[in-house]
Design brief:
The protein contains six helices and four strands, in the order H-E-H-H-E-H-E-E-H-H. With 164 residues, the chain is α/β, with parallel strands linked by helices. It binds iron/sulfur cluster.
Length: 164
């Protein structure tokens, strides 16, 4: 399956309740040849409005920090475990994660990244596939808000830059 075909499936997906309150499915974006895939938990309201991942304040902060260490956003694939926004941005329920996870697994199998970067709490549910290096970092929204986490986040991105 191509990424375009997968995206169409996500746009029309009704496998869990989340599509009902969403404006757009947010499959993720980036080159199919990306060596690095970044995985967050689920889209927020800015992402729901635009249909694009990590475009709100935290996304801009992430993009800026990646660029400071020589990682261009247009060279990485950015997505989330769950592809539709949740009411009041609550944490997705287990059954919603379970319903949505096959899309992420397909994305990983198509893109075959060298490294998967787990953004914050998304780490727990992201499937661990053989041959891929997994790196966990602080979620950019936490790094942006809490000064004590910011330096650690920057160190983690610096380490990531050395891997690729
Ligand atoms: S969150 Fe995932 S499983 Fe649920 S409707 Fe959206 S695409 Fe389908």
């Amino acid at each position: 399956m191509s990424i375009e075909e997968l995206n169409l499936q996500i746009y029309s997906c009704k496998k869990c309740r989340l599509w009902e309150g969403a404006k757009h499915g947010v499959p993720g974006e980036g080159p199919v040849s990306a060596q690095v895939m970044l995985v967050g938990q689920n889209p927020g309201s800015d992402e729901d409005e635009t249909g694009r991942p990590f475009v709100g304040r935290a996304g801009k902060y992430l993009t800026k920090t990646l660029a400071e260490y020589g990682i261009k956003r247009e060279n990485v694939f950015i997505t989330n475990i769950v592809k539709h926004v949740s009411p009041q941005n609550r944490k997705p329920f287990d059954d919603e994660v379970k319903a949505c996870l096959p899309y992420l697994i397909t994305q990983i199998n198509v893109i075959k990244p060298k490294v998967i970067v787990l953004l914050g709490a998304s780490a727990k549910e992201t499937p661990r596939l053989e041959g891929i290096e997994y790196v966990q970092v602080i979620h950019p929204s936490a790094a942006m808000r809490f000064t004590n986490m910011r330096e650690k986040f920057r160190q983690q991105i610096a380490e990531l830059a050395k891997l690729i």
